[in-house]
Amino acid sequence: MKKLLALTSGLALSAGMASANAELMEMMNDPNQWVIQTGDYKNQRYSQLDSINKENVGDLQVAWTMSTGVLRGHEGSPLVIGDTMYLHTPFPNIVYALDLNEDGRIKWKYEPKQDPDVIPVMCCDTVNRGVAYADGKIFLHQADTTVVALDAESGEVVWSAVNGDPSKGETNTATVLPVNDKVIVGISGGEFGVRGHVTAYDMSSGEQVWRAYSMGPDEDILVDPENTTHLGEPVGENSGTNTWEGDQWMIGGGTTWGWYSYDAEENLVYYGTGNPSTWNPAQRPGDNRWSMTIMARDADTGMAKWFYQMTPHDEWDYDGINEMILTEQEVDGEMRKLLTHFDRNGLAYTMDRVSGELLVAEKYDPVVNWTTGVDMDPESDQYGRPQVVAQYSTEQNGEDVNSTGICPAALGTKDQQPAAYDPNLELFLVPTNHVCMDYEPFRVSYTAGQPYVGATLAMYPAPDSHGGMGNFIAWDNIAGEIKWSIPEQFSVWSGALATAGGVTFYGTLEGYLKAVDTETGDELYKFKTPSGIIGNVMTYTHNDEQYVGILSGVGGWAGIGLAAGLTNPNDGLGAVGGYAALSDYTALGGQLTVFKLPN
Amino acid sequence: MKKLLALTSGLALSAGMASANAELMEMMNDPNQWVIQTGDYKNQRYSQLDSINKENVGDLQVAWTMSTGVLRGHEGSPLVIGDTMYLHTPFPNIVYALDLNEDGRIKWKYEPKQDPDVIPVMCCDTVNRGVAYADGKIFLHQADTTVVALDAESGEVVWSAVNGDPSKGETNTATVLPVNDKVIVGISGGEFGVRGHVTAYDMSSGEQVWRAYSMGPDEDILVDPENTTHLGEPVGENSGTNTWEGDQWMIGGGTTWGWYSYDAEENLVYYGTGNPSTWNPAQRPGDNRWSMTIMARDADTGMAKWFYQMTPHDEWDYDGINEMILTEQEVDGEMRKLLTHFDRNGLAYTMDRVSGELLVAEKYDPVVNWTTGVDMDPESDQYGRPQVVAQYSTEQNGEDVNSTGICPAALGTKDQQPAAYDPNLELFLVPTNHVCMDYEPFRVSYTAGQPYVGATLAMYPAPDSHGGMGNFIAWDNIAGEIKWSIPEQFSVWSGALATAGGVTFYGTLEGYLKAVDTETGDELYKFKTPSGIIGNVMTYTHNDEQYVGILSGVGGWAGIGLAAGLTNPNDGLGAVGGYAALSDYTALGGQLTVFKLPN
Ligand SMILES: O=C(O)c1cc(C(=O)O)c2c(n1)C(=O)C(=O)c1cc(C(=O)O)[nH]c1-2
Ligand SMILES: O=C(O)c1cc(C(=O)O)c2c(n1)C(=O)C(=O)c1cc(C(=O)O)[nH]c1-2
Asked: How close is the Cα of A124 to the center of ligand 1, in Å?
């Protein structure tokens, strides 16, 4: 393989940036390493490596494998820093440092002691979306919300900080975002009435620097009522409380368990907030700001620059946490800094990431039926709001009424599984769900640390379609159009990887790693790994050879039936029934499979 | 690949044999299937398949993989019957039927409900050495000693029988032997004072037909005092009680947890019995017959034809249960029906399997030091007895004295990991341990269901050798000589497979599947599987292509530290310390990896 020159990013490094960040960005630009879960700060999940390409990917072989020693859902991916691979597991969140020069020999292993009481307060399996690297440290955010900085060489604990309280339903599944001299972390617990927040810790000391809640008083949510905007307008005072009835915002959800992006030039961090609590919309009148919102915040202060709430007053659990993919593309003849986001609600949004202007909002699965689409007329009082179809409004149908045939299901047209972007083709490669639901809200009362869900769900494949529960699609974010679509029997719960070789990789819940032609979607290779895949494909180089790595281990929300041994169709927040057939294809696991071309 | 003609065995089928057996033997002779854990009734673990051979084995690739959904030690192997693969797991002893025509889709899954209280009474990990097939049924012998017959097509339970009582320490890890119209099963619990026995159940009904204890009155041990022989002499009356003091034989051990062989012409079943209980020899004066004994019994009645006690009055826990490999070979110009056995005690025995005559008894690891060898002079009063070196006699050194530097360690020069036989080269391919020990016996009292061990052990690599804890060797059973030896860092705890392609396969505790030239021992291929290997390599054909399958999942006695999370060096009956470095190489797992040549 020819060595690739380090990619020089189009963006100049901003002056005030800490040197740790400069090093990290240089490493991100080196396609031989995989230094951050999201591939790079832009969440593009694109690799410049092209040794494995359309012509030869069909010859791919398994190079080596490793069991993580843990069962249940394995999300995220390993990192590769130099000759070391860092591998994490779901609860109990073991971290391995593997020596790639010695066939993956274990250099060190870190196994936190965590109270297993955290397991029942994790909504959607005991997943963890992986560790991060910066400044010689590996950052692990444990299920119990302990953030740990480990010396990357020795595995020794450098510092640890406690971000939340599992006894109140506060847990973690997300990776962290190292930015400048801080580590930015989220929190889970939207099904337990947790009020979501994002917190920055000092990278060297673990001291808390800022915290921004998703709802609450202005000083909690870090807005400037005059300068923080929503669709171009200042949010005004008390925006995080005045769309709530009474104190409901205190148990308002809007958790922050997704992927984080960063624009170094703007020094802005992008992420989305989750569903408002409870799932019974009648209990929380109002728009429930800022749940279901894309947020742009200053990395150093947490101050919000702009918000965009995609699903005001959610009635379907369409958490807005999916990744924000940052691109530079021409729109109407002008180069713009864009943010593209495939939301749970079935709409794909293209926005100007500097201003927060909404450019495109289109369904990325034609079966989406709860909305007729977003009002795009800036003059309309409905501007930027999805127009709700009454038949599928669980609020309008009322409590204790089963609203049937809603598409997508609560787990959305896409959930946490991250999409990839091919900058050459300007195409987004998107793992999707093709699932609909029945949803019956009911009244629920809040007790700290107890489920605060308030709806009974059933999920099933989108009716009158190909019969499967997923598609892997290519999306044009400017035209707002599907380019091609591959039907899949189950939701594609794995993160995609696009490569300069013209090949895009993804995994399936049955356990296949698949490689397709990025341009056409034609299948070029598939391999049955030990267990269902909900991890994200990554790639790296070792000794001048390109490798592709993927974690297997069925689970996550889609695989919760298998992962937690549930069989009642309505269990697992409604997911068990729809995915029951998964047990005909795969069993619990926890393995890394690494591929390469034959010698 | 050219289809191979069904091997016509040199033996005529005996007249009285049930038709189920005729079908089973025909299937065993079809190298395209793998119908019994041991490869065939002879325990040769040899395959006539030669598509994968010395020339091309270096190109082997992983074809597909499957997680079993269970962690800890995975012993045994899958079976292949036609287009179906049957896969088992350690406790809870799940059985999967996989459709090979549909990429291993799960046809059915059987998961017994077993009381987890059985786990702490399993001495050496929660292993199971696999299912057996006969007469349209899959036979599973669960950890809790329930024997279950499952319909091979549907997975429905046809019958089940209870063979023992875990509350008294009776458990099971062994596979069963289907013979004629019976299923023959053993029992574990030598570390709990269980009195071992072998039991035959009716294959269609599950009714018990006969049971033969290892010690006790003649009617319990099924001997004919006049006609059952030991080294050519009748055993005489009360042979199972008169070498014990008092009633000690009632808690005498001699469990039967190993592999079983069968000679259809003689209608004899061969197996070995385990250590006498307790491990403190001072508590059980006498030869402790018939612990540590090779037994030949009539398959239909259980009546013993001959016995050979290898280690009278054991002082080191050298269970005699290792497999008996049946061959027909020329000895001094005469074709003989032989039985070759690599005992834990470090001696490899070649016997006439019809008469029970001892032909060869030689050390198969030069470090063996507890004995100077077996007295082979039929005129001697020591005939057939190993001569004990006083320095290493834990009995002579006495209770509460630490006898140091004993070779081999309690887990023997070989433990349960079965050897293979290449009939062309007349070579045995033997996975071995290269481990020594310190052994300090102490007085212990018996309580049903409680450990009845009475010794503290420490294990370590054989001193003044290559530093590793294992060797993979080729053995000439007529000359009693090692032909070649491959040093390994850890004990080779995996069962070997020899093939007509001139290639022998085995797995390592670090997780490598290795292929070597059977003639020379030269390494031809290796691949790092997800977890340490203690399973046995098997091979089969599907759609005219040869496949090689192996279970990974570190554990067993050698891997008990990892498997059960033990760290005190003396824990795990002394094995934890010696194998501690394993955690630098591998983690818990449970996966099948299937290999084939590239297309
Ligand atoms: O509201 C929350 O706090 C929260 C947390 C999580 C999580 O932490 O994994 C999920 C969800 N919600 C959720 O709605 C969801 O669909 C989901 C899927 C998954 C997954 O990993 O498969 N987690 C979560
Ligand atoms: O005495 C017994 O009943 C008994 C049972 C077992 C077993 O069932 O696995 C083992 C042993 N002993 C034993 O001595 C031994 O070395 C051993 C190794 C293993 C293994 O599977 O790795 N089992 C056993």
From this structure: 5
